[in-house]
Every structure is written in C-alpha cells, then in structure tokens.
Amino acid sequence: MARRTPPLPSRPHGETHLVHRVGWLRAAVLGANDGIVSTASLIVGVAAAATSRESVIIAGVAALVAGAMSMAAGEYVSVSSQADTEKADLKRERRELTEQPAAELHELAAIYEKRGLDRETARTVAHQLMEHDALAAHARDELGISDTGRARPVQAALASAAAFATGAALPLAIALIAPLEALIAWVAAATLLALALLGVASARAGGAKIGVATARIIFWGALAMAVTAGIGTLIGSAV
Prior knowledge:
Blueprint: H1 22-48, H2 53-99, H3 101-114, H4 119-141, H5 153-177, H6 183-206, H7 210-238
C-alpha cells in the first residue's frame, strides 16, 4: 500500500530556530565568562597578598582594559582567518563552475543522492538550484558555508570586547564597595552568582540544559579564583 504524502499547509507554520545565534552567542558568552573569571581571579589574588585597596583597583582596571582589547584582537584575528579560508574556497568554486559546469552539476547531484534522493530527482534538484544560484548551492551543500555560520570578524571582535568589559566590571565594582577585610569573600560570592546567571542565560539562549551549563561555568570560575587566591596568599606570606 503506497504511503500518502500529507498535504502542504496553506501557509508556513512559524518556527524559531537557535542556530542563527551561534556566532554572536559564542563570542558573547566567552567574553563575559573570561571577563568575570579573569578579573575576579586577579582581584582575589592581589587582595590575598594583603595589599592596599588602591593596588587591587589598579589591577582590576588594568585587567578590564587589557582583557577587552586582547579578546577583541584574538577574535578578530581568528575569525578573519576563517573568513579568508571561506573566501579562498568560494573563489576556487566560482572558477570551477565557470570551467567545468557539467562536472560541478554531477558533483552536486551526487551529494543529494547520498542524502536519500533517487538519481533522477537528485539531478533535477541540482540542475534547478544551479540555475537559480550555482555558487550559493555549492557553498551551502558542498563546502558547508551558509549565511548563518558565515565568519564575521568585526561582529565577533566587538561582541567579545563588550562582553568582556561588562563581565569584568562586576568584580571591579564589588572591589570598590566591599569592606577591605571581607573583599575576597564579597568578590568570590558575587562572581559565583554572576557565573550562575551567565550559565542560565547562555543555556536559555542556546537551548541547552541549564543545569549542565551552569555547573561547568561555576566550577571553572571557582577553581580559577581558588588557585589565584592560593598563589596570592603564598606571595603575601613570603613578602
């Protein structure tokens, strides 16, 4: 008995996908997490060495500025390398489409056939897509390059720098208002709370499990602060 194909709806149903957030979400979460953890760890380490509040604040401000610039530069360079690779692949594909259109049609049809289409349908689909936009079809289905995951160096750099500065501002603000004798405890508590909120926010934005995302971000943040506090204490005792 032949399977009946369900009728198409009169209008497309609304869907909300999360994959379009991958580029900026990765940079934002990485920047905010790094800003919170690195700045808080430095502040805790310096405070553990029994130095003055002024030294702690100077160290925190330096960490914020240097970290934001480093994040921006690192993201821009790494994503630019990805963009250069994509451009080189697209340039080569454009040349092959001009010089060997029949071979490229066969290549695209073979991709669709491997995905489950019969040979005739695969060739028909490949032919129609190449007539519509040959380069876009090959970029998406042969090279895996799409507008959603396209490398955007400036966007990634700005998102990382802004997120880092925002994250770093929290422990720095706590260091400004906390009693000097309880500064480490205040900064540590505020940092762990902020990391928990960041884990929840990133999980909700990316559609991941909240518990797992929150637990791992808190663990690494607590470990970083514990290590730097220990080093600061040892240095303070030695001095």
